[in-house]
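(Deposited chain)
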Amino acid sequence: MIRQGETLDPFVSAKEELKKLLASPAVGSGANEDTTRLQLIDALLFNCLGWSINDATTEDHYNGSYVDYILGKPAAHFVLEAKREGVSFSLPTGITGRHAISVPTLMANKSTADAIRQVLGYCQERGVPIGIVSNGHQMAAFFASRQDGVPPLEGEALVFSSLQEMYDDFSLLWGYLSKPALNTKNLQRYLIGRKNLSLAPEKLSNSIPRYPGFRSRTELETDLKTLGQLFIQDLEHEKRISDDFVQGCYCPSGALSQYSMLSKEVLRARYSSVSMAVGQAEKVATKRGVNPKLTADMVSAGLSRRPIILLGDVGVGKSMFLRHLIRVDAAEVLQKSLILYVDFVREPTFVRDLPTYITERMAEQLEADHQVDIYDRDFVKAVYNKEINKFKRTIFGDESDPEEYRKQERSMLAGHLQNEFEHVRRALEHLRATSSRSPLVVLDNIDQRPAEFQESIFESAHSIADSWPGTVFVAIRPSTFFESRSRGALAAYQTRVFTIEPARTDQVIIKRLEYARSKVIESGSEGVFPQNLSIDDDDLVAYLDALIKAFRVDDDLKALIDNMSGGNTRTALLFLFTFIGSGYVSTQRVLDVAESGGTYTVPMHEFIRAIVFGDYDYFSPEASAVCNLFDITTNDGREHFLLPAMLAHAQRVAESAGGEGLVPAAALYSFGQTLGFSQEQIGAHLDRATKKSLLVPVDGAEGGSYRPTSVGSYLYRKLAHSFSYIDAMTVDTPIVDPTVRRNIKDVHSIKDRLARARVFQQYLDAQWDVFAGEDVSAVFRWPDVSSELAADIDEAERKADAAVRKRNDGLLKPWGLDH
């Protein structure tokens, strides 16, 4: 009997569902492909193997082909091709009941061979490792993307010849094809077997129940997280304080980072390349402030009938710059302008008729912000006065019958109102003629939308600029601009482009914290922050004081945030928000120090752990903003050093590239192959590096190029030297030495974690001894990293011992060892 609140074990529940499926009348009906999918394969996947509908993509289209199922998100685990139930796998006599069958044996049957080749093509087109063919009661799974030199069609397949066989051997079915099994790559290990280049061993995380878990917070930390959401992320969009926010939190753009691990030459090349590629682009700011050409263009753009493009990477502060430009820098110039602002951060993802949607937002803002109702009866008559006078001269304009005249006039005006885009244009023309008020239209944050959506907005922006009075701003990222200019909407237009570079992240954070502090202590702040929380205003001020102090005086902390955000101020603020109310920081300790008259000094390890772990108990590579440098794809311990070596090589090449700051992809592959790695190994790490922003792909030369980032540089040159980082990565790193693996366990006390970190460090030392050579040592030396890591582990142990002594002496509260 299951008590309330309890649930069946997933394995037991799934097996029961398979038993029900066996008894279903759908089995054996000879159904067509669509019915097979609906009645059998859906039931197998979603009821019997632990997958959810949210894990699946169906009828995926790519390169002219459609795939029935792709399972796994964000990374796809397998492609499944459904066949009608009557198309069976013909297995040679004597092997029915065996599950490991060679693919050539399966392909002896023509229909099976055709199905395998079909799904193999789908997998290779999409880079998906596993291919599965199923007719609902039979299933064959094979490795479609291998790294051991064996062609996929010469490998082995996992085969179930009937639903009854799946039920009888359900442990095998669940152990290799369920969602938990695919997440740990059990099937790949089974199919590859004991090859020289087999898959990496399982990670410690695979054996931890409820991994990655959620980090618990106290009520105080939960309330602080709520407040952090308000004063770090949401205030920018609060209309009541938006002008005040812009005044207090704006930081000028264009100052090169003082803390970047990349050379200033590479940083300059990154931003100057945008201006050079655009041609006539100007920077939005000069040393004296806003570029006067920009303010001049704001006045003349309406005459040139082309929009102004504001070009900048994601998170550099385009929105903040625009708000400050409109409300502060150019406020006098725009004194009589009608500011119409559409921020696509908060607009719907899908809009059927974008021009109509934009004009509706414009009409709403004209009424709400400028007290102009463009559908007011008297206003409409004033706009179409010329048409009314012309109407009076027609046969329908006879005013001898006033009632009929008014009816016909209303009908005529209603016809004009049906075209909303044209009506808004006419309304704005009327306002300019009667009150000298011209519109300034801003279409912001479109670069966070899909490419097709951005193309539509470009076209709308040009249509508005071409036909409406006034000026149109569009804020986009460089890659989107270049793509659209070469093949998309911008190809047909001449554009005026201004580029924006990021502000210094430390200054952005300090201003945001000081602004929040001022809001707390102001008597008028009531209503901005929620009431009845467990933290009062005095405590919140003390907490903010600790953070402000940290970002004013701690250069190591500034370097961490600046480099790991990669110049993206939005990411830097997200890191700050992650820290505030984190379960890895004792908020009570901060307040206790304040109560005793001091200001808490935020340790670096607290920031590192908050950023690395986020909301989880364990490091999760999918959820964390931080990359595991030492993860591997094969059972090759040398591979632990492939990614840091590639990052070091990329930075060296970029900094000696004569100002371009780019590294050809071919150079990275050549470097990796010189070290003895396969293309598959190199490609897997390049893919991880781009997903985690350690390298940025740049279109252009054949094969493409990469630009190194401060994220990757800081990771291998600094963060990898710290105990906090290594401690987190240990659970996520496969250990190829079985003896060492037995000593890498799930531990929690600081003493046990320190001991485990030393074991992990010594393991990496041993793998380096196998790997080390002149080719890699010229760019990356693990012994140097290991030496600094050992010193940091020793320092962490010294602090832990000191904390124990203080606690035993009654000088430290129990939470002194929690973190």
In short: The first helix runs from residue 10 to 22.
